[in-house]
Structure to design on (434 residues):
């Protein structure tokens, strides 16, 4: 059975035939910081292996340890992991989660390593796509994250669903650099395991480990099309150091019954550029800023940070600097090598929450090994009548039609007509393949 699965995957690598489920807004490539300098390529789909047990997964990673060989690892089925996966020095590796696959450990434990995730120390040129990881719930004992990037560079994490990490869902520290996190979904569904020091540690993503550990010049990262969902109380993400670009992201991390502490945390050394994102669907605890993260770290004497907010919903455009900041405002597009397309914030919620091709582990088998999206940005006028609007108009609604002009509740497989209703009363019409 395993051999037949591998044969099918190898065949798919040879005859991958399109983007059956890919969002037209998904570039299907490591945009942003993972493409600056040397583009992240992972294994280039070489040496594929399918793993269905913990033992097989560990053996596959062991074969990559120390950069021994390029390898493409396909996770199939549900795999219980007794403790974290730590294999240092992995290079030129791609890890794919096949649809329906899962890495999990729901057992509450005082063992810090009892979390079913990847501890990526000194990894280089690696890709993790479409992987779902479910941990035992938040428990502040310096435990593991679902994914930890430690001194790792040139990393692309895409379309992953990361839930209930013991310490966090996805963290980076100790000189990690050139990282792109795209189309990922983060959540906490399990009630936190309280202890005397931390009654609620549902902290999704911490970038940089401490104010005193100088990581200036590192932690350059892009978060694009990411969705912080139920229970993520803080660190969505929480940034120390690094040039960090956050674009087309969505926060639904707080509710009336369970309000969040904050969304984006701004720490010492952070250089942030946040654009075209949607903060309007989160509920925060009384007295909290909409997204600026006024926590104990932010209020220390070290306030060297700077922030640009542009084109977002739920936060007005702004630029601000902390005391002691001596350099200008970070703008990722000042670097001619930096590539990342964005769309209006008004579209973010509908695009990211689409269960077929939004954020999370939504990729089909025939998409895993593909590269690029021929549909992205190449919309074609259709027979549906439309009028071009002026350049300052904003998108206020979307409707979908089939090729016969019939209104659809949602896009269907095949060719669809997408009509953008604009704020000036006009509309723009495009054809997309789904």
């Amino acid at each position: 059975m395993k051999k037949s699965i591998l044969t099918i995957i190898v065949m798919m690598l040879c005859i991958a035939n399109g983007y059956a489920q890919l969002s037209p807004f998904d570039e299907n490539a490591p945009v942003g910081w993972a493409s600056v300098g040397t583009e992240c390529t992972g294994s280039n789909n070489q040496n594929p292996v399918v793993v269905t047990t913990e033992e097989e997964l560990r053996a596959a990673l062991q074969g990559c340890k120390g950069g021994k060989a390029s390898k493409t690892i396909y996770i199939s089925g549900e795999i219980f992991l007794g403790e974290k996966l730590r294999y240092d020095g992995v290079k030129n590796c791609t890890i794919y989660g096949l649809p329906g696959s899962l890495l999990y450990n729901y057992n509450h434990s005082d063992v810090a390593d009892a979390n079913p995730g990847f501890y990526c120390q000194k990894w280089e040129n690696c890709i993790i796509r479409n992987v779902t990881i479910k941990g035992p719930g938040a428990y502040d004992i310096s435990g593991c994250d679902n994914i930890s990037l430690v001194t790792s560079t040139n990393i692309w994490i895409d379309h992953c669903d990361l839930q209930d990490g013991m310490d966090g869902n996805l963290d980076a520290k100790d000189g990690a650099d050139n990282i792109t996190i795209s189309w990922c979904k983060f959540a906490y569904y399990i009630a936190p395991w309280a202890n005397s020091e931390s009654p609620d540690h549902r902290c999704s993503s911490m970038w940089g480990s401490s104010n005193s550990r100088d990581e200036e010049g590192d932690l350059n990262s892009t978060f694009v099309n990411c969705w912080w969902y139920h229970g993520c109380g803080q660190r969505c993400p929480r940034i120390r150091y690094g040039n960090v670009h956050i674009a087309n992201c969505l926060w639904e991390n707080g509710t009336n019954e369970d309000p969040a502490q904050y969304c984006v945390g701004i720490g010492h050394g952070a250089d942030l550029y946040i654009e075209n994102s949607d903060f309007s669907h989160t509920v925060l605890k009384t007295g909290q800023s909409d997204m600026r993260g006024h926590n104990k770290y932010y209020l220390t004497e070290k306030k060297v940070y700077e922030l640009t907010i542009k084109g977002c919903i739920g936060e007005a455009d702004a630029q601000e600097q902390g005391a002691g900041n001596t350099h200008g405002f970070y703008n990722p597009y000042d670097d001619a090598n930096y590539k990342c397309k964005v769309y209006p914030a008004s579209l973010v919620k509908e695009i990211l929450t689409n269960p077929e091709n939004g954020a999370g582990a939504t990729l089909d088998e025939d998409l895993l090994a593909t590269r690029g999206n021929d549909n992205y940005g190449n919309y074609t006028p259709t027979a549906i009548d439309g009028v071009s609007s002026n350049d300052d108009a904003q998108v206020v609604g979307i409707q979908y039609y089939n090729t016969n002009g019939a209104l659809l509740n949602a896009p269907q497989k095949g060719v669809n007509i997408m009509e953008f209703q604009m704020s000036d009363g006009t509309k723009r019409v495009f054809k997309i393949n789904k």
